[in-house]
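Today's session is about reading a structure prediction critically. Students often jump straight to the picture, but the first step is always the sequence itself: look for stretches that repeat, for charged clusters, for runs of hydrophobic residues. Only then move on to the predicted structure, which in these notes is written as discrete structure tokens rather than atom positions. Here is the chain we will use throughout the hour.
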Amino acid sequence: MHHGLIYLGLPIVHPLLGDPALLSFLDFEAYEGTGYFIDSEGRVWTPHSLADVPIVSGKVGNAVSFIGKSTSHISTPYTADFDLQTFTLSLWLLTTSSRTSMNIVSREKTSAGKDYGWVLGMAFYSVERGIPYFRMYKGDGAPGTNVRLVGVTDLRDGLWHHILVTCASGGVANLYVDNVLEDSDSLGSAIGYTTDTPTLGAADWGGYWFIGSIDELYLFSKVLSAAERTLLFDV
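Below is the predicted structure for this chain, in token form.
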């Protein structure tokens, strides 16, 4: 984490850093030490290959870029506090890629033929190139997924877009793009989890490599209000 930074002559402001429900925040301003990020709660996020996850100009200050190969992803060790049923995931994203099945943020795992966790990605099917999606898995081995949300905005314009997902246990999951609700569905049952590694830019097990940049990543253990969502969008 880097606080009190100056960008284009102005101080960098990160909203909601003091929120008690904040589980992780990454600003990607610069690598620490020998090449790793430290989030708001002191967790270490490490790139598979430092050369393949470069720092680039971001939405706010700097961002991190992924180049769509097996060594271009970032992860942090599993801890049980990532096993959330109610949460908000927020980030800024920039891409021009038409690749299908790209994972942006993943808590997804397949074990013994059963799918667990969740994933925010792009273009799960070829007809959805450039379109964001969010999938949640029950972990019970039943066909299909607990929830699949699909956006409508094509993100391949090389501009920064704000992506935000909310999930309320026993309630509703929502997908917002640029502070506009694009899809919503009821949560049929709890998310199933394993001790999979939280990963940026790929699946925990490899594959589904992302091409593009990510900035200002937040994970909260609550559903943000409309006013709080707007704070993250209006940076």
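Discussion point for the tutorial: The first helix runs from residue 226 to 233.
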